[in-house]
Structure formats: C-alpha cells, structure tokens
Amino acid sequence: NNRQPTLLVTGGAGFIGSNFITYFLNKYPEQQLINFDKLTYAGLTNNLNEVENLDTYHFIKGDIADEKAVNEVFTSFDILGVINFAAESHVDRSIQNPKAFIETNVLGTNVLLQAARNTWEKQGVLTNRRFHQISTDEIYGSLGATGKFHEYTLYDPRNPYSASKAGANLLVKSFGHTYGMDVVISSSSNNFGPKQHSEKLIPTIISKALELKPIPIYGDGKHIRDWLYVMDHCRALELIFHHGKTLETYNIGGGNERTNVELAMEVCEILDLLKPEIKSEVAIESFKDLITFTVDRQGHDRRYAVDDTKLRQTLGWKPDITFKSGLYQTVDWYAEQWNNITL
Ligand code: NAD
Hints:
By secondary structure, the chain is of the alpha/beta class. The protein has helices spanning about 15-25, 65-75, 90-95, 100-125, 160-180, 200-210, 230-245, 260-275, 275-280, 310-315, 325-340, and strands at about 5-10, 30-35, 55-60, 80-85, 130-135, 180-190, 190, 215-220, 225, 230, 250, 255-260, 290-295. It folds into 2 domains: about 5-195 and about 230-255, Rossmann fold; about 200-220 and about 260-305 and about 320-340, UDP-galactose 4-epimerase, domain 1. Helices cover about 40% and strands about 15% of the residues. β5, α5 (about 160-180) and β6 (about 180-190) form a beta-alpha-beta unit. The protein starts with a strand and ends with a helix. The mean pLDDT is about 95. Nicotinamide-adenine-dinucleotide (NAD) binds next to α1, α4 and β5.
C-alpha cells in the first residue's frame, strides 16, 4: 500500500545511511522506508543485506538532483519525513573535481527541499513533516590546539566538499525560515565502523596493512580528528529526527580525538592480534612498521573537535561504545571481509 506513511532516506546505500537503515528498521519493524540512492561508486546494495528482504524496505535507484524522479517519489508515496544522507563525501575527490559535489550536495538538496515543500504544502502538513539534513563538522573549518566546534561556531569551510555541505545547510535553514518547514540539521565528526568505503582512512590503513603495502599517512600525521562510532551516530540521528527542535542544529562528536598517526598505530596493534600469520609472511614485528608519510593533502584542516553538550543535555544522548571496543569491532569486521575476499 503506497499510501502508508513512509520515511524517505536518501543515500542509504552508503556507509552511514546503510547502518542507519539497518538499525532503524530493526527498531521500528512496522515503519515503511524508502532508500533512494543513485548508487554512485560509493553506494553498495550489499550494505543492505540485513534488510533487503523486509516488506517494509523499498529501494529506488535515483538521483536527488533529478527533479522528475524525486517528485515522483513524493507523489507516489505518503512521505512522512526525509533524512538526507545522499552526498558526494570524499574530500580528496572534491579537490580533484568539485562539480559533482555542487550538483549532489547543493543542487540535490535543493531539489529534495522543493519537492518536500511543494508536496507537504499541498497536503496541508508542511509543519508536521520533518526534513533532517545530515551534515558534518567540516563546515566549521579547522581548529588550533584548543577549543571545539559549537553549534553557533561560524561556518568556515576550507575545501569544496565542506563548502558544498555548508551551502546545503544554509539552504535547509532558509527553507525553515522562509516557508516554515520543519527542518533540523545534525553535524557529526568523523565516523568509523563497518561498511565504510575502502577509500577512507581506516579501511585504507587496514587493506594496505593486510596487503603488506606501505600505509599512507598524510603530511606529519599529526592532523587530529574526533572519531565517532557509526552506531552511536545512528542512535543520535534517531533521537534528533524524533525529538530535535525545529530549525536547530545538533553537533554529534565522539569525544575521541586522535592524531592520524595515533589512529593508524591503534589499528595496527589490533591487526597484530587478529592477523599474526600475515605479518609473519615478511620480517616485520608489527604492522606499524608499514606506516609511511606522504605529501600532505592540499588545504588539510589541522584539527576537528566537536562539542556535543547540547545533544547530551537536551536529548540525553551519549555514546554506548568505547572507542577501543568500536575500533576493535571495526577492524575485526574488515579483517573478516578480507578473509572472504581472499578465500
Ligand atoms: P558515502 O559516500 O559512504 O555514501 C553516500 C551515498 O550517497 C552513496 O550510497 C551514494 O550512492 C549516494 N549518493 C551520492 N550521490 C547521490 C545522488 N546524487 N543521489 C542519490 N544518492 C546519491 O557517505 P557517508 O560516509 O555514508 O556519508 C553520509 C552523509 O553523512 C553525507 O551527507 C556526509 O556528508 C555525512 N557525513 C559523513 C561523515 C563520515 O565520517 N563519513 C561525517 C559527517 C557527516
């Protein structure tokens, strides 16, 4: 029945979206949900193995910047809310070619907002339906040795990816102010966990180590990121979508600041325990011996750290999983995938 209230999740075949959908449909087994995803290089339907056979899960392949396709979703289904994960998400690719980032992250968000607004206005439900924009702490720019990003920190994006995400947030806010739409934004720090694309830092460290190849770390390796376990992020998103205040932003951090080289060392220590047989193929004592420093990323932000007091105090969120155990589970998951590929 197409007229059952249905949640529209975009970009749900990617890393965070697929973890979110799996979590959400397990928790709310009655909830109808559409995953609308273009299946770019970053989208994998395999990421949804655990839910693809559920009657409540529906996949539609489409581009959020394609007005016709997006409008069709809104006219064919009773969309009770939107959670927009869909994005071009890799900073290095945005430095090479910003165009796709503007098309998806800015124009695509605009198409979704317009379709939601037009449909909900016609149905007389504009203020009862929520548009939740998934954003990043990278919009705030780069920090020195101290301080954290707050929700009121001015946007200061430093690369085309973060600029496009900042632009999207401004559009989302404008739809809230101008048309009275119920919009909410969440800005999270770097996520880690299963199902992340192989191009990102932690999967790269693991795959290079297991291939016994140099593990590339940009510059001096002292860039700091605040790591958030993806399942803790998903629980925060559920709370914000259901209980966050309209037109507000919520920062989500992990409280786990690590330099990139510290992180690489921790991943290697876990691999030393999980995969001693690979390490012993060559004469190295630890996978750490494979860490090498490469030419720095252009405009590489030095430090990100997120203050998420607002989320903790107003919505009662806190991370469930310690950094250590989240990292162990993550490395274990990739090592398992590695076994499956190489068997
Ligand atoms: P990802 O690259 O793993 O997944 C992105 C998904 O969006 C893919 O499935 C892709 O096919 C889809 N997509 C891309 N362009 C599309 C389009 N035009 N139309 C429809 N679908 C499209 O990204 P991720 O790491 O899961 O990030 C999800 C969201 O969270 C993004 O908005 C990102 O900016 C944000 N975010 C990510 C992190 C992180 O650490 N990964 C941190 C903070 C915020």
